Please model this.
Amino acid sequence: MIRQSYFLLVVIVFLMASAASAEDAARKKVLLFGIDGCRPDALRTAETPHLDQLIRDGAFADDTQILGERYRDNDTVSGPGWSSILTGVWADKHGVNGNEFRQPNYEEYPHFFRRIKDAQPSAFTASLATWAPITEKIVTAADVSRQLREPKESYGKGDEAVAAEAVRLLREENPTAMFVYLGNVDETGHVHGFHPSVEPYVAEIETVDRLVGTVLQALRERPSHGEEDWLILVGTDHGGQGTGHGDGQNVPEILNGFLIASGPAAARGKIEQPTYIVDIVPTALAHLGIDIDPAWKLDGRPVGLRKN
Model:
């Protein structure tokens, strides 16, 4: 009888611990903003109250590298950039060396939503973009994946639509992880120049900051926000020089990006260790409580999180 009672107690404790673990996992959420072609020195020049607040409420690096030490042969453009950001591996693994997507290897190195859905099948994932290859080629396992810019429509109008859809999803759905891509900073750089002295370029960073603010406001207004643990990540795929950013393997203005990790789970202050764009996926997975399997062969590691 004593043995049966002890066994029952063990079962109850196990079930309670499992329920607590599941509840904790449901609380943890990730919102990733991708700002295409945003130089960190231009970000510092622009008036960006919402991004500045994220930096104050978290960890920040302004020298995040878009290429690693092992492999530097891919072009410094959006195809390999967003592939590295969204898979957590460099281009010699995911196979995208330019914007042509000739031999992608996303089956072996998938978009991080696949890692989330495998670990948490009930998770709700959403990707909102204005650059078509993200939706058409990179994203997998998303419950919602929307391309919110028509072919001849401006990126500025598309970015507005992305922000509006992100607000709707935060109000009407219960996302576990959401990727919000904003493309007009890059488009403006191609027209006017990528530099903190270029007024239209800096002004577009300020416009993106306003859109980020509308999304963050919707997040804060969620009825369940007080019980949720959101990690806000912000990054870019490359910088720029002149009106371009290709063939930038030895150009600091192109190679240097930035990374923000913000929220209760984030550390505070400058991230002292070197950071790379492939660190974003491991950071998101670590926050969500998903163990990183060595078999995935990720090139990044979690950065900017508080130590338990």
Q: What stands out?
A: The first strand starts at residue 28 and ends at 35. Residues 185 and 205 are 6 Å apart (CA to CA). The radius of gyration is 20 Å. The beta strands are 28-35, 58-65, 125-129, 144-147, 177-182, 229-235, 256-262, 269-270.
